[in-house]
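Folds abound. Consider this:
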Amino acid sequence: MVENDLRHKLGWIGTGRMGFKLAERLLAAGCDLSVYNRTRAKAEPLAAEGGVLVDSPAELANCDIVFTMVSSDDDFREITLGDKGLLTQEGAAPKVLVDSTTISAGMSAEVRVAGDKVGTKLLAAPVSGNPEVVASGKLTLVVSGPADAFETARPYLDLLGAGSTYVGDADAARLAKICHNLMLGIVTQCMAEITVLAEKGGLERSAFLEFLNKSVMGSVFTRYKTPAFVNLDYRPTFTPVLLRKDFDLGLEAARELDVPMPLAALTHEIVQSLIGRGYLDDDFAVLLEQEAAASGLKLEPEDADVSDGLTDEDA
């Protein structure tokens, strides 16, 4: 439970796959949480867990801290600066706005300026993980913005997973998350290539990936993606479309900062080819399928019981 002397009135906007699970964690810890989602039905199960549902972002303006996790620049602008936006209510505004949406630097700057005018401090707080990682308690966050606002929000940020890392002022955290997701795509494409090479050479995917995961090259991520690769489970945790958006933002930042990124640029084109072939709603692990097709290899699920490495027993 959250200690009484740390108790703040919290708001949450956005209950998609990730937002719902994270809001649940705050409720499970006993937080005072009000919730808004554009499609109310998606948020309604949280009412049974103690959440108070509201009908517009404006109704959260009296909260001390509001968390937002929506889909795009346009969505973030609407919930903050729209007619019933969080920051447009006369005489009321949250002290801290914690945003975990992947948005552009321009949109973030626009909302930060608007927040400053009404006394709201903006924290950028991108997350690393997906609903399964949230459920395991291993989600991590990278946070930037005013240091005092971070200290206010930190107890609640830490309830969301394994902890938060403060990286500085303004939008430093958004750049950190974009760099993270560039690596996510590059590593997954690399993993797809070597797995296809191993299988075409006669190895079972499960055996090869077990060896990889036990070696110094194995990681939390390679272990986590192993069931998807072995059993061809492409239920979405992160889609190619969302990954392409992050590559677009990352390559834009690289151009602005004069950083050559040949591997990222090539992976961007590979992800684009996935989308061009119609892989819109699959998990980005479907990079394996594309690599196999390019190699003349027909994949079959191995139906093997392999660990994703998320439980304590698997650690």
About this structure: The longest strand covers residues 163-168. The domain at 175-314 is CATH 1.10.1040.10 (N-(1-d-carboxylethyl)-l-norvaline Dehydrogenase; domain 2). The chain has twelve helices and nine strands. The chain has two domains: 4-170, 175-314.
